[in-house]
Amino acid sequence: MRYPLTEEERMIQSTSREFARKDLAAVAVENNEQGVYSEEIYKKLGELGFMGMTVPEKYGGVGLSNFCLILALEEISKVCASTAVAMSVHNSLVNWAILEYGSDFLKDRYLPGLASAEMIGAYALTEPAAGSDVSALRLTAERKGDEYVLNGTKIFISTGDKAQVIAVFGRTDQENRNRGISAFIVEPDYPGFSVGKIEHKMGLRASTTVELVFEDCRVPASNLLGEEGMGMQIALAVLDGGRVGIAAQSVGIAQAALDEAVTFARERKQFGKRIIDFQAIKLKISEIAMAIEASRLLMYRAAKLKDAGENMTKEAAMAKLFASRTANQASYDSMQIHGGVGYTTEFKVERLFRDARAMEIYEGTSEIQHLVISKKVVEEYERMLPE
Amino acid sequence: MKIIVLLKRVPDTEARILINQEGTGIREDDIKFVINPYDEYAIEEGLRLKEKVGGDSKVTVVCIGSEESAELIRTALAMGADDAVHVCDPALKKPGPFTSGAILAKVLQDEGFDIVFCGKQAIDDDMAQVQAITAEILDIPQVNVAVVFEISDDHSSAVLNRRIEGGDERVETKLPVIISCEKGLNEPRYASLPGIMKAKKKEIRKKTLADLGFDSAPGGGRSEILKWFPLPKGGECKMVEAEEIKDAAAELVKLLREEAKVL
User: Fold this and answer.
1) What residues in A contact B199, CB-CB < 8 Å?
2) What ipTM was assigned to the predicted interfaces of this complex?
3) How many Cβ pairs closer than 8 A exist between chain A and B?
């Protein structure tokens, strides 16, 4: 896609692409087939600076923009969306939450390790009874002396079993539904922490998704993120950034699906001509290409608003919804263009199709994005129109 | 130790090359340009040598090329090179090997050097002449197509393996020397993200022909490219099918005689 990137942005995109095509592509197929999370890949990503992209240099990061982060996430996702899951959670959720809301103590303690990928970050919000409805969460966090004692269960936590730094949301006040939630940084060796069930997923198989169990888990009070009661605010703000990350993964998947489709359709012949010369295939190619570029522009805008320090709740939701839908349509159509072989595990489009499905589900389902967008749109009208 | 790496901007190996209408060059619209892949081995070897020798060693990138080359020079700086000289002059549209050699020899003399690494050839015009011409002008040794490089303990000489037909040839050379690098010499590193940020502050010294003391492009005129044209398209492949092999053979002979008219 033609877009005016700066020299620095092009160089970052280029390094991301080279790394994805060489190091990541060499292991992606096998890791996804066998459901293997590769510590080696994150170590390499850490060495190249990808795990601390937006962390300032004084904390060992690179000090880049969110825009650069999504450029990199898209390139990684083109080759292995699973790898982009932990990279996105780590950068857009954990690093950012600590940077934005953490005390100096927490920043000094965790950011250098996170930025170099010596520590991997996970983000534990979802519970059996609370997903997008953050206010319904039940995990309790009771203050006892200079510690908080956590009791409860988190589910569907990406990389929860591999992480050394886990942002956990719990209830510090039973009475106050929205303002009774607080966020903590938990290390896996704190007493009372354990990893529960490991999920077997349809896609994103080179990334782990687990249950986390907290039984009288004692967390130092200094590991409170922000202030007591700020949890809901932190969760929602952080998710805006996370959604742009999902948009980047989606665009990567969609672009890979188009790449595969065009490559295949130029080779495959039926009735004496290449199938790319049939109108039915051309229509699919043009629709996918257009939707990908529109998705990418929505994502670029959301990231740039975030870099400008502006609220981008609506824009992030739009980017996530549109891009995740595009990833699904693109991988569906790409498989259709492939025909029978596209349904076999020998062709990449089969993995893209499975990975795409998660994009419309996690970090807020498409239905939640509709809620977020419509709420914001109606609010905009209500500020303009007479009562 | 003063290490110099020569770099050229070339079309991406994956780019589909089309000749322009006039036949004077290739169509440059919508294709990606990269660091000549063999030059990447040169950059990597230069950086490894610097890391090994330590002290006040320095890697300087030298590139002749258009304005657009600056981004690729910057990439080499992001990989870890210290600074660069960019020879950029409108009078240098497509310098031939003698022109490039004369310019590079001047730059190398001005900069001073102990060792020069470059690619064994540029993958665009595949001439593989510049390093030889430069070495001849400077009257220093050259070792080409290197796959192993070892510096001596006192840094005054080096032992190399050159890849030749069917094997390697082991060579010892004194420094200063020009070494052209072959695939297999090393695995080039990526331009890391912190490296990209650091590269912004590194110096690229831009030089015109006049800055180097030339009135016009030097050393040219020994040969001239008249025209570029694409390879003729390959013919269609026709598969001969039959139940019995002898029927297929008969059909093939018929086709060769009547259609291809080669029998």
Assistant:
1) 11
2) 0.90
3) 43
